[in-house]
Write a structure and sequence with these properties.
The protein is elongated. It has nine helices and eleven strands. The relative contact order is 0.10. It is of the alpha+beta class. Helix content is 37%, strand content 18%.
Length: 273
C-alpha cells in the first residue's frame, strides 16, 4: 500500500468529525444491528457527544471507547496525525518531536507516545518494559590501530535497558546526555517501574517522570546495594562485545545499523541474574 504524503493525510482526515466517522466505520461498519433494539440500519452522528445513535431507539455507540483515544482531551485529528508519524517514520517519534509537530504540551506528547507505543507493542506481541529495569551505556567497536585502550573515536555509544526476567532493549545514541537518554527511558519503560542505574548524572530526575530511581556508585567501588545493581545489563554488554570482537568490520557495521534502529531481544532469567 502506498504511503500517504502529509498533504494527502490532511486531505483525507481534515477534521475531528472525519476521523470519528472513519473510526466508527472501521470498528462497527456502515450498517449494523442495534445492540439494544436489534433492528438493522445506519447509526447517525449525534451533536451532543462524539457518538452515533440508532435511528430507531436512540441507542448510542461511542467509537473511541476501548481505544487509546478514549477520555483524551486531545483532538482526534492530532491523534491520527501522531499515528501517521509513527507509521511513516522509520526510527520512531520522540515525545519532543511530537510536541513540536502537534503543538501540544510535553506531558501530553509523552502520554501520547506511551499510549501509541503500548498499542503498537500489543499489535506486535510486545509490551513496554516494566518492573525492575537496569539502564546502562557502553562503547562498542573494534580496536583502532595505533591508539591506546582508552581511545573511543571509532566506537559507537550503545544505551541499553534490561527488564529483569524479561527483555533487553539496545539502541545506538549520539551521546550520554540527560536529554538523550531519559526520553528513551520514558518512551519504552512503563511509568511506576524501578529504574536501576550507576551514578551517571544523566539519570538524575527520573523520579519526576514517574519512576523509582535506585543507583549504585561504581566510582566509589559500590556495585550492589540491596536489590539495586546493573549487573544484568553489564553481563549483557560483556556477551555483546565478545560476539563483536570476533566479527568482521562489515558485520560490525551491519550490527551497528540494527542497533541504531533499536533492538529488543528476549533474555532468559538465568542470564539476567
Amino acid at each position: 500500500m502506498k504511503t500517504l504524503t502529509v498533504q494527502e493525510f490532511f486531505k483525507r482526515y481534515p477534521d475531528d468529525d472525519t476521523c470519528l466517522e472513519y473510526l466508527m466505520r472501521k470498528r462497527h461498519g456502515a450498517v449494523l444491528d442495534c445492540p439494544k433494539c436489534g433492528k438493522q440500519g445506519k447509526f447517525h452522528r449525534t451533536k451532543r457527544h462524539p457518538a452515533y445513535e440508532c435511528a430507531w431507539c436512540g441507542y448510542e455507540i461511542y467509537p473511541m471507547v476501548g481505544t487509546i483515544f478514549h477520555k483524551s482531551h486531545t483532538p482526534l485529528q492530532k491523534w491520527f496525525y501522531a499515528l501517521y508519524l509513527f507509521t511513516t517514520t522509520r526510527h520512531g517519534v520522540p515525545a519532543k518531536e511530537l510536541q513540536r509537530q502537534l503543538g501540544v504540551s510535553y506531558p501530553t506528547a509523552l502520554r501520547m507516545t506511551h499510549e501509541i507505543r503500548k498499542h503498537m507493542a500489543k499489535v506486535d506481541g510486545e509490551t513496554p518494559l516494566a518492573g525492575d529495569i537496569e539502564a546502562d551505556e557502553t562503547y562498542v567497536g573494534g580496536k583502532a590501530k595505533g591508539k591506546g585502550r582508552g581511545y573511543k573515536g571509532n566506537k559507537a555509544i550503545v544505551f541499553g535497558m534490561l527488564e529483569r526476567d524479561g527483555d533487553v532493549m539496545t539502541k545506538v545514541v549520539p551521546n550520554v546526555r540527560k536529554r538523550t537518554l531519559q526520553p528513551i527511558i520514558a518512551e519504552n519503560v512503563e511509568p511506576g517501574g524501578t529504574v536501576h542505574t550507576d551514578e551517571l548524572r544523566s539519570y538524575s530526575g527520573l523520579e519526576q517522570a514517574g519512576y523509582t530511581h535506585k543507583t549504585v556508585n561504581h566510582g566509589a567501588g559500590e556495585y550492589v546495594d540491596g536489590s539495586s545493581h546493573v549487573n544484568g545489563i553489564e553481563g549483557y554488554w560483556a556477551r555483546l562485545k565478545l560476539v563483536y570482537s570476533r566479527d568482521s568490520r562489515s558485520r560490525l557495521e551491519a550490527a551497528s545499523r540494527e542497533l541504531r534502529e533499536g533492538v529488543r531481544v528476549p533474555l532468559q532469567p538465568a542470564e539476567a541474574a
